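U., I forgot to send this yesterday:
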Amino acid sequence: IGCFGRVRAQKGTDVFVDAMCRLLPRYPDFTAVIVGSIVPEQIAFASDLKKRIEAAGLQSRIVMTGELPIEEVQRWYQRLTIYAFTSRNEGFGLTLIEAMSVGAALVASRAGAAELVVENGVTGVLTPPGDVDALVAALEPLLRDPVSCTAMGTRARARVLEKFSLDA
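Result:
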């Protein structure tokens, strides 16, 4: 399960961490990854997240990579089963389309263009921004049912190929 973007409250990284701390103990086959830069102003925020992860005993299952070269980011996308878009507010939110292009199922907060990109219940599940309980409720059925999760990811990939250009 991945959450990509700068590590900060606006991106909902804390919402993702809190949801993972609740879900991962019940789903040992999953690992969470947070890919994104931590700028100097966000070091305290990121340190607090690391403390939450350690308190939950999940430091080996919730990985914070920091900023990575684009080739490595692409490799992390390719490892995903589920992509969590947890922004509280957003412009467009390109990471959704990037995750869809690799066939990840989506759970996305209703921020930025998420409602235009994600077909709720078809290519992903939409949740209210900043709502840990809603994120947990949306993720858990996907964790419980890998077959429907994979099918959702397949539909997401088909949608992005049909509706969005991947040309740079």
